[in-house]
Amino acid sequence: MGYSIASLAAWGIVGQVIPGVVIAVSWAATHQGTPTPEDIDDRIACQFMWIQAASLVGALGVWGILRWSRRLADAPTPAPSRRPLLFLSAWVVGATVACLAAQFLIERLLEAIGYPILPQGTVTKAIREDAVGAFLALVVLAPVAEELIFRRIVLRTLNAGMGPVIAILGSSLAFAIAHGDLKAIPLYLIIGVVTAVAYLRTGQLSVPILIHAANNAVSFALTLSDS
User: Fold this and answer.
1) Alpha helices in 136-184 (DSSP H)
2) CB-side exposure of 180: number of CA atoms within 13 Å?
C-alpha cells in the first residue's frame, strides 16, 4: 500500500502541482491582483491538453521508477497476460456499454432525487476553445496516464497485498477523488470499478485504457454537441 500512496503523491506533484504552479506564474506575469476562480478555470481550459500531457509524463515517470527498482515484480496480475483478441475485444465492448449504461442510470436517479450532476466547467470550456486539443487530452492522454497510475500501479499493488475486493474499491475511490469533482464521484466510481475488474480479468492494461477512452469519447461528443 505504501507504494500506491507514494506513486499517487509523485504523480500528483509532477502531473498536477507543477502545472498548477506554472499556470499561476504565467497568470501573475500578465495580470495584477488575485485571480478569481473563473480566471483559474479559464487558464486551465486554455492549457488543458498540456496539463494532461504533464500528467502522462508523471505517470510514465512513476511507472518507470517502480519498474526499474523492480517494485512491481512482487505484484503480478491474477489473470494471464496473453488472451485471444476476440476475448479482449468482447471485454472492451461489453464493459464500455455496461459502464455507460450504469452512469446513465445513476445520473437519472440522482436527478430524480434533486441531485443533478452538472458537466465540469473547465472541461466544457476546453472543448469549446480547442476541440482537437481537448479530444487528445480526454481520449488519448488522460486514459493512458490514469489507467497506468490507478490500475497498473495502485490496483496491482493493492491486489497483491490485500486481495481483489480491497484493490478494486481502493483504486476506484482514489481515482474518483483525484478528479476533484465531489458531485460526480458516483460516476467516477463506476468507471473505476469497471476498468479495475476488466484489468484483473484480462491482465491487459490496454483493455481498461480503451474502455476509459471510449467513455471519455462519448462524453466529449455529447459536450461538443451541446456547445
Assistant:
1) 142-147, 156-162, 164-178
2) 6
Q: What's the CA gap between 86 and 88, in Å, rounded?
A: 5
Tens digit of each residue's pLDDT (9 = 90 or more) over 102-138 = 999 999 998 888 877 766 677 888 888 889 999 999 9
Give the chain's domain count. 1
Asked whether 156 and 67 are in contact (CB, 8 A), the reply is: no
- Helix, strand, coil percentages, rounded to 5, for the chain: 85, 0, 15
Q: Fill in the amino acid letter for 86.
A: L
User: What span, in angstroms and rounded, lies between the C-alpha atoms of 39 and 65?
Assistant: 36
Please answer whether residues 110 and 135 qualify as being in contact, where contact means their C-beta atoms are separated by less than 8 angstroms.
no
Domain containing 135: what range?
Answer: 2-226
DSSP three-state, residue 21: helix
Closest among 137, 105, 107, 102 to 122, alpha carbons compared: 137
Report the predicted TM-score, pTM, of the whole model to 2 decimal places: 0.85
- Of 39-43, 56-60, 122-126, 128-132, least confident by mean pLDDT is 39-43
Question: Is residue 16 over pLDDT 80?
Answer: no
Query: Which DSSP category does 136 fall into?
Result: I
